UniProtKB/TrEMBL annotation:
<feature type="modified residue" description="N6-(pyridoxal phosphate)lysine">
    <location>
        <position position="346"/>
    </location>
</feature>
<dbReference type="InterPro" id="IPR036052">
    <property type="entry name" value="TrpB-like_PALP_sf"/>
</dbReference>
<dbReference type="InterPro" id="IPR000623">
    <property type="entry name" value="Shikimate_kinase/TSH1"/>
</dbReference>
<comment type="pathway">
    <text>Amino-acid biosynthesis.</text>
</comment>
<dbReference type="InterPro" id="IPR029144">
    <property type="entry name" value="Thr_synth_N"/>
</dbReference>
<dbReference type="Pfam" id="PF01202">
    <property type="entry name" value="SKI"/>
</dbReference>
<dbReference type="InterPro" id="IPR031322">
    <property type="entry name" value="Shikimate/glucono_kinase"/>
</dbReference>
<dbReference type="GO" id="GO:0008652">
    <property type="term" value="P:amino acid biosynthetic process"/>
</dbReference>
<feature type="domain" description="Threonine synthase N-terminal">
    <location>
        <begin position="236"/>
        <end position="313"/>
    </location>
</feature>
<keyword id="KW-0663">Pyridoxal phosphate</keyword>
<dbReference type="InterPro" id="IPR004450">
    <property type="entry name" value="Thr_synthase-like"/>
</dbReference>
<dbReference type="GO" id="GO:0030170">
    <property type="term" value="F:pyridoxal phosphate binding"/>
</dbReference>
<protein>
    <submittedName>
        <fullName>THNS1 protein</fullName>
    </submittedName>
</protein>
<comment type="similarity">
    <text>Belongs to the threonine synthase family.</text>
</comment>
<dbReference type="InterPro" id="IPR027417">
    <property type="entry name" value="P-loop_NTPase"/>
</dbReference>
<dbReference type="GO" id="GO:0005737">
    <property type="term" value="C:cytoplasm"/>
</dbReference>
<dbReference type="InterPro" id="IPR000634">
    <property type="entry name" value="Ser/Thr_deHydtase_PyrdxlP-BS"/>
</dbReference>
Length: 738
């Protein structure tokens, strides 16, 4: 067996004498001390006895980058091709490949890896090493595998002028592109860390990125979460044992002080080159890259995260592009977010979040998830959690509260029809704001939550957009939409776009703002409201005022909201994480029904956001107008955004309108907009009538199937009373977990 150990010429120095030497050097030559200490600390703390294993396709620069990393860490550098394979075989890799053929070569290469051992080294794998499972399992035992992810087009360009005789699998009838695409599945299986490498990026820059990525991998302490209402002094005094990580906030949902969780150090920033490397990627590939940077591998390893993302988006969406961007007219584009199983943008988060939640929660406790919905969340969360593995369904249940008379008939039928053995819908005789406020109060009722834990071994969790795991997937589709416009040649990377979003609870538009903070060139986020236009007034004046406001029932029920929970996260960000100020503002809103932003904060807000609103009459007129001119049917929420976009855009750049739901969910309003005189009250009949129009997009397959199977079904109805809601919750826990 070949052994290579780290060579460390060290003098025997006692701890006291070393301390005295360090102190003397620090005082006399502080700059030199800092450089020496940084070099020693980097090498010893970053590597230890572990290896850094560089993996990637041929032409990724593994050998060159490995040498630079080794120099920076002052440790051995091993190239598997040159230092192991050719030494073992006494011939070149190309000769070996020519002598034994493709399949035998992979086996011989794997055997050589199994005999190899190293410690504290930087190792550059061959491009084909990851195709041998046993060999890679052996290498991973003592190493951190870093995947140099270089776009296929860049690799093709790099290899074009090089000899191809060392690329395993290359033969007549098999293209280099096919080989590179085939190998990706093996790279994705083995890596611990992904490093994005753009086209012209220098090897020295890649090496620094590798070191940064390894440091992040080894230090999960950096990626903690805080409450929007925690003060800086509270955060500085917090002990390590009380720090919260991704798994904690997914499980807990809402902070104990009533605030919302946000990452303490903010979201990761991508370079322009990194974003450009994703232009040709699929939606699933983009999601994997973005979410890997937002979720520490100590919380969810990259391989598990990839599995979860594939499960969420692989087969559950009717469009292979997942979130396609369609040209509407002029400089307006639609981001179609309704191709998931329940026909709304909520599917993007709620096909993914249940699997994240199931992975993060401890196995020793049952969980009941509380959901409040103004329409689309209910069916989406029911469908998402119904797709969990059976073992997870036994320990995870949910109850969905919705305003009994505040959603469309089809939405209501869908929520009732999506009930499963571990998921129920409860209609509440009130509006969405009551449902959402009630859930917050239940979470903050320590007596009640403690009773459920002690008596039934059951903890409560939230799956509304206040849960951090709900927001992250939404960032992906806003970034992906921009990249799609670049891919289609509509814009070049770096050109700005505006985004217009029908906005209720502020989660979707906040995700767009987060995408902007991560490096997507979004100029303005346009907030589109209906007649419940509290947000519009707030963005224009800085005054959030609920005094005398009553919720108005409109044709766009998902934005029939007066209290926008996720606004708190945005204000926390622009207020430089001033938790005391956020607490003051939202306590004032709760107690007095209003608050006003300081002038400087309003200025910051208006640099990011503009806002408008639209009446029901204008909403229906827009649906009719767009259908008459394009043959495309907008849903009522998208129509609200279309009206506001028409009024507020300056036409100097493209505008992406979020199409947040399929029009079939709001058939009565759509039929009215299309000026149908007689409308059958049966939801299924309404869909059949709409399908006769042969419009774009076609009737939603999942919605039609749900209504065919379930009809209107049974569900529980509850009074707008906190005691009644808590009684419902306790009964459901008894029936499911006991």
């Amino acid at each position: 067996m070949l052994h290579i150990f780290q060579y460390q010429p060290l003098r025997l120095i006692t701890q006291n004498s070393l301390s005295r030497m360090c102190l003397k050097l620090m005082l006399s030559r502080p700059v030199a001390f800092a450089q020496i200490w940084k070099s020693w600390f980097s090498s010893h703390s970053l590597l230890g006895k572990k290896n850094i294993i560089l993996m990637g396709p041929p032409g990724a620069g593994k050998t060159t980058v490995g040498r630079i990393v080794g120099q920076k860490l002052d440790c051995p550098v091993i190239d598997i091709d040159d230092d192991v394979l050719e030494t073992t075989w006494n011939m070149s890799v190309s000769e070996k490949l020519q002598n034994v053929g493709y399949e035998e070569f992979l086996e011989e290469e794997g055997k050589a890896l199994l005999k190899f051992s190293a410690s504290g080294s930087v190792i550059s794998l061959s491009g084909s090493n990851p195709m041998h499972a046993a060999g890679m399992q052996h290498m991973k035992k003592n190493g951190i595998v870093v995947y140099l992810d270089v776009p296929t087009t860049v690799i093709m360009s790099r290899l074009k002028s090089k000899k191809m005789d060392r690329i395993v699998g290359l033969s007549p009838g098999v293209s280099l592109k096919d080989i590179l695409q085939f190998r990706k599945q093996f790279y994705k299986r083995w890596f611990d860390i992904r490093v994005l490498c753009g086209g012209d990026i220098a090897a020295e820059v890649v090496a620094e990125k590798v070191l940064d990525a390894v440091e992040r991998y080894q230090d999960s302490e950096l990626e903690t979460f805080i409450s929007t209402r925690s003060s800086r002094s509270e955060r500085s005094m917090k002990e390590d044992s009380h720090k919260l990580y991704f798994g904690d906030v997914v499980t807990q949902g809402l902070a104990l002080d009533g605030g919302l969780f946000v990452p303490e150090r903010g979201l990761p920033k991508f370079t322009a080159e990194e974003w450009q490397g994703l232009i040709d990627a699929t939606y699933i590939e983009r999601a994997q890259v973005i979410l890997e940077r937002c979720i520490h591998p100590a919380d969810i390893p990259a391989s598990k995260l990839a599995e979860i993302i594939e499960t969420a988006y692989g087969e559950n969406f009717s469009c292979s592009r997942i979130a396609p961007v369609r040209h509407l007219a002029g400089n307006q584009f639609l981001l179609e977010l309704f191709h998931g199983p329940t026909a709304s943008f909520k599917d993007f988060a709620l096909q993914l979040m249940p699997h994240l939640f199931a992975y993060c929660i401890p196995r020793s406790c049952n969980y009941l998830i509380l959901v409040a919905t103004s329409g689309d969340t209910g069916s989406a969360v029911l469908d998402g959690f119904s797709r969990l593995h059976d073992t997870d369904k036994h320990r995870i249940a949910l109850v969905n509260f919705f305003p009994e008379d505040g959603v469309s008939p089809i939405q209501k039928s869908q929520m009732i029809g999506c009930q499963k053995e571990n998921a129920w819908s409860v209609g509440v005789k009130s509006d969405f704001d009551f449902c959402q406020t009630a859930i917050k109060q239940i979470f903050n009722n320590s007596d009640f939550t403690g009773f459920l834990t002690v008596e039934y071994g059951t903890a409560l969790a939230a799956a509304n957009s206040i849960n951090w795991a709900r927001l992250l997937p939404q960032i992906v589709y806003h970034a992906s939409a921009y990249l799609d416009l670049v891919h289609q040649g509509i814009i070049s990377f770096g050109s700005p776009v505006d985004i217009c979003i029908p906005t209720g609870n502020f989660g979707n538009i906040l995700a767009a703002f987060y995408a902007k903070k991560m490096g997507i060139p979004i100029r303005k986020c346009i907030c589109a409201s209906n007649e419940n236009n509290v947000l519009t007034n707030f963005i224009r004046t800085g005054v959030y005022d609920l005094r005398g406001r009553k919720l108005i029932s409109t044709f766009s029920p998902a934005v029939d909201i007066l209290k926008s929970s996720n606004l708190e996260r945005y204000l926390h960000l622009i207020a430089n994480e001033d938790g005391q100020l956020v607490t003051q503002l939202f306590n004032q809103l709760e107690n007095q029904g209003h608050f006003q932003l300081q002038k400087d904060l309003l200025g910051k807000l208006q640099q990011d956001l503009v806002a408008g609103w639209c009446s029901d009459e204008d909403c229906l007129a827009a649906i009719h107008s767009v259908y008459s001119t394009t043959g495309y049917i907008l849903d009522t929420h998208t129509a609200v955004a279309k009206v506001v976009a028409d009024r507020l855009q300056d036409r100097t750049c493209p505008i992406i309108i979020s199409s947040t739901a399929h029009y079939s969910k709001f058939a009565p309003a759509i039929l009215r907009a299309l000026r149908i005189a007689e409308i059958n009250q049966n939801p299924l009949s309404q869909l059949h009538l709409l399908s006769s129009y042969s419009a774009l997009p076609p009737i939603h397959w999942g919605l039609l199937e749900t209504l065919k199977k379930t009809g209107n079904g049974d569900h529980q109805v509850c009074a707008a009373d906190m005691s009644a809601l808590m009684s419902h919750i306790e009964t459901l826990i008894q029936n499911h977990f006991m």
